[in-house]
Amino acid sequence: MTAKDLAHELSREWRVWFLITALIGAGLAIGPHYAEEEVRIGPNQVENQTTIATNINMGLDLQGGARVMVEPNLTGIPVDEHGDTVDNIITTLNTRVEAFGLQDVTIRPVSSLTSNQRRIQVEMAGASTEELRNLVESQGRFEAAFSIQASDGDTLTFEDSVFNVEETENGLSINGTAFDTGETITLQTDSHNITLRYHNQTEAFHALRAVGYTGQDVSNVDINPTQSGVQCSSPNSCQFQFQVQLDQRAAERFTAVAQNFEGPSGGNLQGTQLVLTLDGQEMNRLSVSTGFRDSVISTPSITGGGESRAQATEEMDNLKSILQSGALPTEIDIVSTNSVSATLGQEFVRVAFIAIVLAIIGVAFTVFIRYQTPKIALPITITGLSEVLLLVAVFSNTSLTIPIVLALLIPTGIGLYVGFKQAEFTVLMLPVGTLFLLGIFEFAPSLDLAGIAGIIAAVGTGINDQIIITDERKEERVKSIKKRIKRAFFIIFTSAASTIGAMLPLMSIGAGAVAGFAVTTIIGVLIGVAVTRPAYAKILETLDV
């Protein structure tokens, strides 16, 4: 059979067109392109060099970064609610990450089979341990409270309700309710419940704080970007500002508290400041306009600062992300932190894939010695390399643009045409398989050591299955080729099912490398069963091996 005849015969097989579709999609997803990269050539010299970059999403092991293990404080929470609490923490942290605009962050639960201990592992590629700690360890309890200086015999007025202040041996009493430093009481008015906190005591007065609003009262963040930004009055002093939207009830409560203070119209309230705190740590003190006393304003501004523009910007983004995500349902303790060096980096990826390719070629050479024909060794090499390309595409961080979708639809349409022309209605699996590939390409986990190990395991399983198919075709005891192939695929599907079954527990209870290895192996097995094995069998059938 000439090369032209072989190409014609293969073009009549929809399974081959499915493989072509997958390879085109993988190549577009990986997207090799030229990029400028800074390379240090001396102690204080950096040079831009043109390199070939891809859309492959490098993970922590290859790009470097930080990893922390945190443990929620589940004391007092019923055991049957532990799972929901951990899920809420992960959801909050994910929202916080998205609001902060970060990428390459992985947050996953870690559980134990032998105890009720539950932990959460957070990884961030390209970050320091300090940056990651700042992101996750904050519980996110934000509070804006009016400062009040009270003495024995004073009165506090909220709306039409009057509250008498009396000193006690250990602190203060408000309308007969005693409380001490750090404690809070709730003052009830006709319309609102005002939270009052005893902050501390000086020789001259008792420092109280009446809560105006908390992070839970914020319904929207940075509602007016034109009023948001960082201004620097000097190189070492920068201030940020952004507006938030309060719930109506919280805005009314804020006004009710503001009415307790005097001040000229158009000026600031006298005898108070608005103290902004995050997890009990004071962030800033603001003067409050009398406009908040005279009318309900639901869009206050939040300000803060830093010693540089970069620090102020980071503080602003961090606070925005916390207000958008809300407070964590419980406190968390950081169990361990690790800084991961990227010493392997791109060089490791290059060496690893060279090793994979050489392994496939070595297997092909062994197969050639065993079967004494390139008609078997060459298809095994091609399908093995195809599996590597398809699995690498799984780790490509790309969006399905119109050109990519069209590039997949064209060979899919050709495959449907040749399948229906031969009245082979199993071709209906081709569009289903194409959608499966699109879903996998959108999965986009990060490529790390576990992913590379999973690729090697999946490709090794694939070559083993191809040898099974080859031996079944050459088996003399069974005369029908179709029966031989059916028997081979029965073995392959059974092997795939057992492999997936073994990996599922690792996905559910594992963390880090274990879970990543399991996910990659399962995807590799599915790609092999759906794409490369059927195409390999058809290639052998066409070659009449």
Task: Describe this structure as you would to a colleague.
This protein is of the alpha+beta class and 545 residues long. It folds into 3 domains: 3-31 and 342-543, Multidrug efflux transporter AcrB transmembrane fold; 65-139 and 333-340, Alpha-Beta Plaits (2-Layer Sandwich), CATH 3.30.70; 142-327, no CATH class. It is built from 15 helices and 20 strands. The strands form 5 sheets. Strands 11-12-13-6-17-18 form a 6-stranded antiparallel beta sheet, with helices on one face. It has a 4-stranded antiparallel beta sheet with strand order 4-5-3-20. Strands 7-8-9-10 form a 4-stranded antiparallel beta sheet. A hairpin with a 2-residue loop joins strand 17 and strand 18 (281-286). Helix 2 packs parallel to helix 12, helix 10 packs antiparallel against helix 13 (449-474) and helix 14 runs antiparallel to helix 15 (513-543). The longest helix is centred in the last third of the chain and has 31 residues, at 513-543. The radius of gyration is 32 Å and the shape is elongated.
